[in-house]
Amino acid sequence: AVLVESLLVFTMVLLVHAVVWDRFSWCAVALAIQAFYVQFKWDRLLQLGGAVFQFRGAANSGLLPASMVMPLLGVVMKERCRAAGIVYFERFGIVVASTGMLLALFLSVLAVGITKPVPTNTCILTGIAGSVIIYTMKHSLTVSEVIEVLEVLLIFVYLSMILLYLLPRCFTPGEALLVLGGVSFVLNQLIKRSLNVIEGRGDPIDFFLLVAVVGVILLGLFFTVLFIFMDSGTWISSMFFHMMTAVLGLGVIMPWLYRLIHRNPLFWLLQFLFQTQTRLYLLVYWTFLAASACGVVFYQNAKRASESKKHQASTITRKYFHFIVVATYVPGLIYDRQLLYVAAVLCLAVFIFLEYVRYFRIKPFGQTLRHLLSLFLDERDSGPLILTHIYLLLGMSLPVWLFPRSCAPKGTLPGAGA
């Protein structure tokens, strides 16, 4: 299965770069080859329990496909925007590709460094890939872009040390690369845009995802550290949790978003959601689908309660949720892509917030959520967090978030200079 997965990844890399072969193509091929070797070494580390962090061990490391995601996205963005004549986003695509390559290379070096005995051939391949990537970055990036890439790498290192230590067995190395790399890039972009914001410039939608992701991550980090020193399952902790959530949301996130979009975020959101009749119909339809998903959860738990033996949700039952997700996204893509963008961001924030409530056992719903969702656990949720539904949402939403609107000639794309 791993070899088939690797073959598919190599095929995808070659197909993408066959359209336009440039210096980044050599980097991608070199990175893919060395990631394949490193993945083999890291899989053995996971099986032997020799990894520095406690990664999720129920699957392979997934390092090869994860290493290719950001570089390929960056290359595709670069070529699409070059064809459309959008210089800003063409450069942005180059930064995305370079950042993805550097993060993947860093994780590969980490894997090689903790492998005993040190694998000579893999070290040579990693050195060659690193040299090619650094040489390409030197001749492709400006000084400010190099600094931006290094900033993302620094944030990635800190987040890796914090989250992988506090939340063991929640991620495979590949998942850690994608999740923490994405969060690091978003955080860096938000800081950059906040420092360089210009009044009246940019579409509020372009900032909504950045602020939402950073907000929920900061909330999680704050309470993870706080509940080390106090019991999270008491009513006092529950009151403190909700109070501090309100303080962070109304006192930090809302003013931050106001500074970026120069209007009241709540008023803008309400106006956006109910702007057209089509959006009202979509919201009603999505509410019905959400209620249906909740109905499946309650029905399966009622079924478990009525049976004498322990009942676990089957694979077919999980496919119901896949069907609901597809039924959610298809009308959004057809009728209102921007509404789907905002709704997916809100859904992500709600999912993560509910996971905080479940994980910290926040009264009155924390223990109830634990009981309801335990029915759907499998080997992929071996850690303290339940992430499969969040991964499903991310997988469906990333194309919408990355390309919220079609490429257009420079000057017609909102926020191009943000």
Automatic annotation (TrEMBL):
<keyword id="KW-0808">Transferase</keyword>
<feature type="transmembrane region" description="Helical">
    <location>
        <begin position="118"/>
        <end position="137"/>
    </location>
</feature>
<feature type="transmembrane region" description="Helical">
    <location>
        <begin position="341"/>
        <end position="361"/>
    </location>
</feature>
<dbReference type="InterPro" id="IPR032974">
    <property type="entry name" value="Polypren_kinase"/>
</dbReference>
<feature type="transmembrane region" description="Helical">
    <location>
        <begin position="149"/>
        <end position="167"/>
    </location>
</feature>
<feature type="transmembrane region" description="Helical">
    <location>
        <begin position="57"/>
        <end position="76"/>
    </location>
</feature>
<feature type="transmembrane region" description="Helical">
    <location>
        <begin position="278"/>
        <end position="299"/>
    </location>
</feature>
<keyword id="KW-0418">Kinase</keyword>
<feature type="transmembrane region" description="Helical">
    <location>
        <begin position="240"/>
        <end position="258"/>
    </location>
</feature>
<feature type="transmembrane region" description="Helical">
    <location>
        <begin position="207"/>
        <end position="228"/>
    </location>
</feature>
<feature type="transmembrane region" description="Helical">
    <location>
        <begin position="382"/>
        <end position="403"/>
    </location>
</feature>
<feature type="transmembrane region" description="Helical">
    <location>
        <begin position="88"/>
        <end position="112"/>
    </location>
</feature>
<dbReference type="GO" id="GO:0005789">
    <property type="term" value="C:endoplasmic reticulum membrane"/>
</dbReference>
<dbReference type="GO" id="GO:0004168">
    <property type="term" value="F:dolichol kinase activity"/>
</dbReference>
<protein>
    <recommendedName>
        <fullName>dolichol kinase</fullName>
        <ecNumber>2.7.1.108</ecNumber>
    </recommendedName>
</protein>
<keyword id="KW-0256">Endoplasmic reticulum</keyword>
<dbReference type="GO" id="GO:0043048">
    <property type="term" value="P:dolichyl monophosphate biosynthetic process"/>
</dbReference>
<comment type="similarity">
    <text>Belongs to the polyprenol kinase family.</text>
</comment>
<keyword id="KW-1133">Transmembrane helix</keyword>
<feature type="transmembrane region" description="Helical">
    <location>
        <begin position="7"/>
        <end position="37"/>
    </location>
</feature>
<keyword id="KW-0812">Transmembrane</keyword>
<keyword id="KW-0472">Membrane</keyword>
<feature type="transmembrane region" description="Helical">
    <location>
        <begin position="320"/>
        <end position="335"/>
    </location>
</feature>
